[in-house]
């Protein structure tokens, strides 16, 4: 007979999932079944690139059909500052200006322009 479950004991469960996809319950059940836990809703914290793509207001695309999507669009510097304020608590920069530069680098990787010019020109 297995030992009795101790509710005060801390257990760490590592799970990998793809964002936006519902995982199979059969993969989750063996991990949390012995702990007497039920699957709960979790809070989704969007990444910087997800916030930039949302600011571009592009229609959603299927990642299975189109690979390596380059987003072409233009967002304002005010939207970059708003995204930087949302990401400030997760940034490793000392000041907000450093966080803005991080977000501009992400915008450069996504492939969009900021106020009509390349994000790297604004970083300089």
Automatic annotation (TrEMBL):
GO terms for molecular function: large ribosomal subunit rRNA binding; structural constituent of ribosome. InterPro entries: Ribosomal_uL11 (IPR000911), Ribosomal_uL11_C (IPR020783), Ribosomal_uL11_C_sf (IPR036769), Ribosomal_uL11_N_sf (IPR036796). GO terms for biological process: translation. Residues 45-114 form the Large ribosomal subunit protein uL11 C-terminal domain. SMART domains: RL11 (SM00649). Keywords: Ribonucleoprotein, Ribosomal protein. GO terms for cellular component: cytosolic large ribosomal subunit. It comes from the Eukaryota. SUPFAM superfamilies: Ribosomal L11/L12e N-terminal domain (SSF54747), Ribosomal protein L11, C-terminal domain (SSF46906). Belongs to the universal ribosomal protein uL11 family. This is 60S ribosomal protein L12-like. It comes from Zalophus californianus. The lineage of its organism: Eukaryota, Metazoa, Chordata, Craniata, Vertebrata.
């Amino acid at each position: 007979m297995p030992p009795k479950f101790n509710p005060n004991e801390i257990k760490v469960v590592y799970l990998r999932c793809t964002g936006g996809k519902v995982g199979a319950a059969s993969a989750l059940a063996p991990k949390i079944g012995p702990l007497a836990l039920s699957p709960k809703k979790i809070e989704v914290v969007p990444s910087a690139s997800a916030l930039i793509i949302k600011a571009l207001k592009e229609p959603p695309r299927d990642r299975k059909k189109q690979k390596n999507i380059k987003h072409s669009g233009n967002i304002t510097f005010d939207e970059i500052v708003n995204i930087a304020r949302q990401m400030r608590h997760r940034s490793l920069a000392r000041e907000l200006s450093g966080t803005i530069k991080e977000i501009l680098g992400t915008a450069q990787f996504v492939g969009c322009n900021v106020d009509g010019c390349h994000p790297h020109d604004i970083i300089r």
